[in-house]
């Protein structure tokens, strides 16, 4: 990464849809921050999600991007919920180094009933279930999956718990989503979404500064640290907790300016921003390969109006095939 000056005004801000890695040497802290604009709207608009569902998926996208951009190998990072609520599935798929796609599944009738009853919190909409973090390096590598229960905690808290349990790294995540109403250049009403987030981790050079996690079976399996929290991490965590949701989504503040506000007294350094894109990995050939594994009877049963049609759940692209090109040889 290329070091960039932290003096405001001496460089151009990253802007939307770019992850900004940063480091605070004075606190032994590293992390990443992002604001999402057009990328987020592209994903949400193509599905026309109800606002309550869009907010849930937007948070999951920010979380996926913050974690996925830290991967140093070619592969995928997937965040997925599976639960019994009106919104029973969220899937966010990040393909290194820069491509993200996402979709949500929900029951329209149950969602309407929940909202009419005033039950609109993430806990109400997701219900009981699990949140899975999957790292897939491809090839012959076995995917790694960490599973965390959906117990009413926010995605912010669940992410912190995941890192504490799987990586033993003290981590604080902040996420925010904003729904904006304004007018375009022609004066017509316009509705857009924005989202932002920051991931802060305590990664000291001296290992003795890191708290040691309790060993399983010692009578305390809740993942808390047996040694007292280091003062540097306490300070960094408290600074992250002061962030207002509006700051994370406000385009006039910008990611670097927010980092400067938080950590300038401790010497924050912002690095070259990493762009991310709304790109799906589906293709006509990939889907044809899947369909080619179907039996002749299954292909025949799938024919409608003379063709077999498959629509990608992520990007909504529809692929059509002649039955003959899918039939087993």
Automatic annotation (TrEMBL):
Keywords: Chaperone, Cytoplasm, Disulfide bond, Redox-active center, Zinc. It holds the Pfam family HSP33. One of its GO terms (cellular component) is cytoplasm. One of its GO terms (biological process) is protein refolding. InterPro entries: Heat_shock_Hsp33 (IPR000397), Heat_shock_Hsp33_C (IPR016154), Heat_shock_Hsp33_N (IPR016153), Hsp33_helix_hairpin_bin_dom_sf (IPR023212). The keyword Coiled coil does not apply. The keyword Chaperone applies. GO terms for molecular function: protein folding chaperone; unfolded protein binding. NCBIfam families: PRK01402.1 (NF002386). This is Hsp33 family molecular chaperone.
